[in-house]
Structures are given as C-alpha cells and as structure tokens.
Amino acid sequence: MNAVATLSHPDRLLADLIAGRLPDARGRFGPFGGRYVPEMLIPALERLESGVREHLKAPEFQAELAAQLRSWVGRPTALTFAPRLSERLGARIWLKREDLAHTGAHKINNAIGQGLLARRLGAKRIVAETGAGQHGVASAAACARLGLPCTVYMGAVDMERQAPNVGRMRLLGAQVVPVTSGDRTLRAAIDEALRDWVADPLNTYYLIGSAIGPHPYPYLVRELQAVIGREAREQIVAATGSLPDAVIACVGGGSNSIGAFHAFVPDASVEIIGVEAGGRGTGLGENAATVAHGRPGVLHGTYSMLLQDADGQIQETHSVSAGLDYPSVGPEHSLLHALGRVHYTTAGDDEALEAVRTLGETEGILPAIESAHALVGAARWAREHPGRTIVVCLSGRGDKDMQTLLAKLIKEPA
Ligand SMILES: *Cc1c(COP(=O)(O)O)cnc(C)c1O
Hints:
The chain is of the alpha/beta class. It has two domains: 35-68 and 107-222, Rossmann fold; 75-104 and 226-408, Rossmann fold (3-Layer(aba) Sandwich), CATH 3.40.50.1100. Helices cover 44% and strands 17% of the residues. The strands form four sheets. The protein has a six-stranded mixed sheet with strand order 3-4-14-9-10-13, with helices on both faces. A four-stranded parallel sheet has the order 7-6-5-8, with helices on both faces. α3 crosses α5 and α5 (107-120) packs across α6 (134-146). The protein starts with 9 loop residues before the first helix and ends in a 5-residue tail after the last helix. The protein binds pyridoxal-5'-phosphate. The site of pyridoxal-5'-phosphate (PLP) has 19 residues, from α12 and α16. The site of pyridoxal-5'-phosphate has 19 residues, from α12 and α16.
C-alpha cells in the first residue's frame, strides 16, 4: 500500500522536485506520471509539449496571462484572516479566497491560461470535459472571453444532476454534448473529449480540468494553478512576518491543492496537508480517497494512485461533493505522498457539511462542499497544534451546492 518503499532515491527526487527538474524528460514525477495513451494521441501530445515549452514561460505569454488574471479573473484573490473560526478552532486560520475568483472557484486560473495557450498554438476550437460542471463553466467563460468556440462533453447522468451548470455553459455560448457511453459521468466524458481531440488535433485544443492526464497536462495545470500558493505565500509573509505552520487544501484530481502547495514545497518548516473525500466510509465504493485507499495504476493516460479492485478494475467512487468524486489523483500528488512531503488525510461527507455551516456562521462565507473538506482537515490539525498559523485554500464558493446544502443542512420546512 505504501509507495514510499518503492522509491529508490527519495532524497534526490525531493531535491529534483524543489529545483524544478520534475517532471523529467519523460513526463515523470519519479515513478508516477508519463504518457500512457493510444499511439494516435502521441503526436498531439508532443505538439502540445513543445508549445508549452515555447510559450508558457515566455514574457509575452506571461504578460498576457497576468493581464487576464488581474482584470477579468480578479486576482490576486484575498487572503482573509478568520478571527471567529480561529477562536473556535484554537489556531490562527487564514483563508486563501479562490471563492472570490471569477466563476466562483480556482478552475478559472487553469481555463483562461490554457485558453490563451490554445490561441497561441493556433487552435480553432476548444473541447473540454466536465463532471459537476464547474470546469465546463470555467472553460465556457474563458472561451467566450477569448473568442474561441467551446464544446463541453458531459455525462448524461451528470447533466441531469447538474442542470443549472448546463444552463450556465449554454448561456456562455458553449455547446454541451451529452455522453451516453460508459459510466455516463466524468470518466466517460474525458474519454469522449480525448476522442474528439484525436479526430482533428491540429485545429482542436483539449482543455483538461485538473492536474491529471498524460504529460504535459499535470505540469501545465500545476504551473497555471501555482499562482494560488505564490500569492498566498507572499500575502501571509506580508501580514504576519513569517511563513505559516501548515497549508491545507482539498484534493480531487488535485489542481487547487497542487497550486496551493507548490510554492511551499521547498519550505521544510511548513507542513502540507491534502484532504481527500472520505465519503460515507472506508469500504469499496464509499469514498473518493485515492491516496488513502488506492494503489498505483493507469487511468486517463497517467500512472498514479488509483481506486481499483483486486483485478485492477476502476472502483465506483462516492462523495457528497461532486468535484472530489474522481477515482485517481494527479501524479505529482502520488510522488509527494510517496516522499512524505505532503500528508494526505480524509474528511467524511457529514463532517464536510458541518464545516460549511461552521464557516458560514463564524465568518459569513459559504464555501463549496469540496473546500469544506479542507476546513475539516484544518480543524483536526489545529486540535493537534494549538495556537499555530494555518493557510487553508478555500477553493470555491458554496452557491453551486445550495440544493445539496438545503436538503442536508436545513431541516425545518421552508
Ligand atoms: C473542481 C473543484 C475541486 C476539485 O478539483 P481539484 O482539481 O482537486 O482542485 C475543488 N474545489 C472546487 C470548488 C471545485 O470546483
């Protein structure tokens, strides 16, 4: 179960990671990552990789991205001290407010960044997948902003469950295509988006929604989300004069967390904690806690921790938060776990729902249920480390979850 034993040179890998030498030339984070895709996808991924190498760090691209982040996304997002929550938890809690980013979550950082890259690479249209619809909405918004047609693949089951987001995407000018194959949810939607991309890889750009997938996507998404941790690190040092004792974020595919963590990985004094969806139990199919209950395997083109049965079949997952409901996790997280640099823990459905209420009542902020998992992790860490300073990545706002919150938390009749 514990992958630490399989790493041959952990100290060197951590040094490589900190020095920016990972992913390596083969797209690997130690044993994890890589490019496990059908032959016909290789040229498209190689083209994307050379495009990323040419543009991502170039001053003109960075200036264009910075302008969009400032004037359209609304960055930098605030780092808010939470005095009443701090008092309740017995530690000093600071919230990195990705809920204040345009479209209500961190996903827009990635969508606008990849949209700009797609335009640089000469793409004529964007395809994206979406599960709960948050990445679909962010992609639709970014494409509208940049004048690119957008097709979003969404499982037929999810379209029913997330009807308001289907409407939002359509109002933003995107075409939403129901996926009726496979499990008719996120997993099948990713397969369908990849198929569309392969059909015309020169004119189409595949805008993936988390730090997952074949190389170079995990690297690209991490670089675009790293703005979260870069800002938070500067903000906390400016506000308190020192680094925090801990940084905590929720982990689905792993994009808000890798973005929040990246700048802090070299700071040995900072404890880093990822919180996965513990769902309703530790049994098969009861959670989406990939690092806690998974084993390495391949899904969607990357080798990473994966929820699978004894035969290697992908397990069904469950979480009250749709955004955490994915059976794998980005490969960089698998390495950070194996190295012991990030500690991964879980928060259950009920604890997360209570944490939504707590933040609402103490600070006047309704977080996304995903983000509330990070708050549960923060409360636990605060109990073990009273008086310390914690930065929590509040990945999104709770408005999208009102239906679930009303059903589960508001008991009295309307
Ligand atoms: C999608 C989503 C997540 C989970 O995705 P990551 O890639 O793990 O960040 C977390 N929080 C919110 C608000 C989301 O919309």
